[in-house]
Amino acid sequence: MTPRGGAALGAALALAIARPAGAKPQWNAGLESGVCGRGSSLGLQDLGWCNAVHGDVLFLRQGNRDVGLGPSLRLGTARFDDLRLDAGLSLLLPVSESFPLVLEAGPHLRNLDQPGIFASAFFGLRSFNHYGYYEMAAGLSVTAERSFTTGTPSALWITARIDGSWIALPFVFAYNALR
Predict the structure, then answer these.
(1) Which of 124, 122, 164 has its CA nearest to residue 144?
(2) CA-to-CA distance for 93 and 72, rounded, in angstroms?
(3) CA 104 to CA 145: how far, in whole Å?
(4) Measured in Å, how far apart are the chain's first and last C-alpha atoms?
């Protein structure tokens, strides 16, 4: 058998025994609400109520015990007097089957013109959906935002993440009741 024939036979064998990847993207959206502190350095000074809408898409997962990786986006406000946009990369690490640790990091913009970076850690319930693309999530999140612009406050957020489907449920019930 020639080297070329052996390579072709090996490739054909690999294709014959390989099974298709079952990984499908899983996405989540929700509301983060809690306390945050702003100041010239990271810390809980100038405490206030902070809120954000958060969403992410995770790839590479086939089940609850798989690592996931994908983009994330957070749009929020610290004490309702600014606008904060965090766009980064999420890494899901399966600590236990239903309670993973999700780490995020990436660029941060305050009022869409003051750049910085952010890092976040989420721990809570996040189940893998074997029948669809939406994963439910609820838990606690800690986010640090560091601004590079002089005079722009950085922030530390401690929030509870509430799944978007839970927020939508009363509206779904009302809609169905009215039909």
Answers:
(1) 122
(2) 15
(3) 12
(4) 71
Q: Decide if 53 contacts 76 (C-beta within 8 A).
A: yes
Q: What would the pLDDT profile of 23-45 be if each residue is shown by its tens digit?
A: 789 999 999 999 998 876 655 67
Give the C-alpha separation, 153 to 41, whole Å. Answer: 7
Q: Are 79 and 109 in contact (CB under 8 A)?
A: no
The pTM assigned to this predicted structure is 0.82
DSSP track, the chain = --HHHHHHHHHHHHHHH--------EEEEEEEEEEEEEESSSSS-SEEEEEEEEEEEEBS-SSTTS-EEEEEEEEEEETTS--EEEEEEEEEE-SSSS--EEEEEEEEEETTTEEEEEEEEEEEEE---SSSSB--EEEEEEEEEEE-STTPPEEEEEEEEEEHHHHHHHHHHHHHHH-
Q: Phi, psi (5° rounding) for residue 100?
A: -90, 170
The two three-digit tokens of residue 49, written as one number: 């109520």
